[in-house]
Amino acid sequence: MSTFPEYTADKIKQLQSSDNVLSVVLNFVEQGKLTTQMLTKQTKPVKKLLRKFDSLVIDNGILYRKINDIECGECKQLVIPETLKHYALETLHNLSGHQGTERTLALMHKRCYWSDMVNDVKHWIKTCERCLVAKNPLPKVRPSMGSLIACKPLDILAMDFTVLEKSSDDPDLDNYLANHQKQMTESLKTANENIHKKASERQEIMNRGTDNKPIEIGSNILLKKHVQGRNKMQDNWHPTPYRVVHRFKDNVYGIQLADGSGPVRNVTRREICDTGKLDMMQNSSSDITEDSNSSFGGWNVTIVDPIPLPIQIEHQESGEDEQDITTASIDMTPPVDDDNSIRRSKRTNAGKHSNPFNLPKSVLLKEASVHGNIEPVKFEQLGEAIAALGTSLGQSLGQTLQEGWLKHNMSNN
Ligand SMILES: [Zn+2]
Questions:
Q1: CATH numeric code, 220-291
Q2: If you measure from the C-alpha of residue 350 to the centroid of ligand 1, how many angstroms do you get, rounded to a whole number?
Q3: Distance 270 CA to ligand 1 centre (A)
Q4: Residue pLDDT, tens place only, 46-98
């Protein structure tokens, strides 16, 4: 079966006919007629699939949905039985480079179909652990503006500098100081008014369309990863799980490592990725102390059982081979990815900046690169030659000195 190379056509046929929904639909498509009366008796999932009755076809005993794709024209989507959904999502999302919803759906659309495919794909991607760590949540979280609360002395430090300007009109110091004080008081008052006015204006603009959905105390969260330098490939979030232990006003949260160890840190909402949608959800706040007893502090990872189906790779006989080719709609071997968890560039200088601190570069080297006729190798050779010269010079100088010293000694004696 070319849609899923691990499954033979027979296997797919068998899986489809043993599926509760597909077996009923297959019957209808085989008969080729469907009345409203028949439809009303069916279950909800069957009805949903039968809405596409006109586009459903059976080819060599396998149920397909015929569609017109913009890219590949008319193509047949394999109708996926319940047991194959997990495999399809795993293959076309996890093993295909963890693409976003749109691209994963595009891959799916060319190959397979089931009734609630779009929602299933969205849910799968939303709860994909790798995607959660690597990507920013959509829609972007925009907390309302607020101030960060320091949790230890000198945690947050801000300083203003001001310089007293000499008054030009009054040289008398007392007058000057009084004048200055008056001016300062007035300007401070005006500045304060302006600051508050502008701050509230800014806050109002910033708070437009903010997502202030509070994170519950005890929720498991991820912390933002601040990578310095070039960071195209790096994850957006640290994989280390934290959990919320306090919630202050102004969207500031007190967080601690998920196992309950380490100090409590205060961070703003912007620094937090709520994993609430994963099955790693922490229990309510009342359970916090109890949860710290468990090994991962309540970081409950639900491991979905792999599909219990035996995967068969069968070399088919010549007769079946031909049949296989006819049923083949599109070749859909997923890109091979040994380690689907980490995306890495293959470049040897990946992640390395040629001059990260913008240090001054040698003019000679620059010229060498500009004028192609001077090769950098020549400079290496030149360096070696100078080094050799240095050694020989040193040797001869040493010799001369020794001779001189000997002469000096002899003359002294
Ligand atoms: Zn993913």
A1: 2.30.30
A2: 23
A3: 22
A4: 988 888 888 999 988 899 999 987 777 888 899 999 999 999 999 999 999 99
